[in-house]
Amino acid sequence: MPLSVSSTIGGIAWPGVPAPSGASLLAILFQLEQSQWWSPPETSRKQRDQLKVLLDHARAHVPFYRERLRDLGELPADESWHQVWRRIAPLTRAEIQAADATGSMITEMLPPGHGELREIYTSGSTGKPIRSVRTQLWELM
User: Fold this and answer.
1) Is the same domain home to 73 and 46?
2) What is the CB neighbour count within 10 angstroms for residue 50?
3) Beta-strand runs (E) in the chain
4) Among residues 86, 112, 96, 90, which one has the least CA distance to residue 64?
5) Which of 12, 38, 80, 118 could form a disulfide linkage to 42, CB 3.0–4.6 angstroms apart?
6) Is residue 50 part of a domain?
């Protein structure tokens, strides 16, 4: 089915001119559409670039990860970055709950453009509920 964009400007039916949030979403969708044709090495490079930005931010601004990632080192520019990524231990429920009690898993500074922090909670069906904090950008994605 073809993509249909509703116009927010009166008198314009097609092509639709979306609201700012819709324009952002269309820009993301356009990039994802293009990326499906990338070679595996190109995809891996882009994943590594994003992971590096994420890890750098976490080390600098999230107390929990500052400690957890202290000995990780830098991501290599070659394909061995996958091995470094695999050395990061998955979080446990207990770690998340302990970090939530101190707030150490919450960033001290959001990057510009990420919007406000918003909370959600798990149902707690398997025990104590877990609080999750995410940004408006996360919600858009």
Assistant:
1) yes
2) 10
3) 117-121, 131-135
4) 96
5) 38
6) yes
Domain that holds residue 10: 1-37
Q: What contacts 126, CB < 8 A, 6 or more positions away?
A: none
Residues 46-82: tens digit of each pLDDT = 999 999 999 999 999 999 999 999 999 888 999 899 9
What sign does the CA torsion over 90, 87, 102, 60 have? negative
- pTM confidence score: 0.83
Residue 45 placed within a domain: yes
**Residues in the chain, how many?**
141
Task: Answer yes or no: do 43 and 33 share one domain.
Answer: no
| Total domains in the fold of the chain | 2
Determine the Cα–Cα distance for residues 90 and 65; give it in Å rounded to an integer.
12
